[in-house]
Request: fold
Amino acid sequence: MRLLVVEDEKRIADFLCRGLQGAGYAVDAAGTGGVALEHTHATDYDLVILDLMLPDMDGLQVLEKIRNRKVGPPVLILSARGALDDRVKGLEAGADDYLTKPFAFVELLARVRALLRRGQPTPEKLQVADLGLDAIRRKVTRGGEAIELAPKEFGILEYMMRNRGRPLSRTMIVEHVWDMDYDGLTNIVDVYIRHLRSKIDDRYQQKLIQTVRGIGYMIDAPDKPPERPVEQAPERLA
Ligand code: CA
Reply:
């Protein structure tokens, strides 16, 4: 596994390189966006760790150039800018994860490992609470009951379940499921999410698809049940 660390602050770059090498990875370092792009042209990296504030260009530009090449390594953005706006911009521009400085090295390492695992063979049976998805037979069940989904609905659900607990932007969903560069038509995702919700969530007490404000959507089973259980209409009980 070969990683590229793009960071102009030498102290941080050294700290990252030493830590990652200690964890068993081969690591290259780049102090500018220009050098980073030269490196990514010349070498197939398994992961790029990218600082947003670089002396010669904005890290987001570096990210866009890496992403323009279609088959690119996953990118973990690292930045002192923790504002939601930057996080959204980074994810929209195709970053795979985002970590705000200051951070603990163990947290960085956990995210690096998670991103590197994503390239590994993926399980064919996915489960979130009582929702099951069989990626080979293309079957979905909730509470044991079969649910019919259209192909795009299935694609979105599979993508979300493979990224359980991770907020996915509309752009990420479109690019994953439609397999083409959509430009500004990401509201189609909202339409499909509505269809999906009507099939897998509306009739059930526990809602699994969650709206993440400012980003997009995520699937997860919240640990806590809703505070007030859905009750039968009182007249029915009388
Ligand atoms: Ca910097």
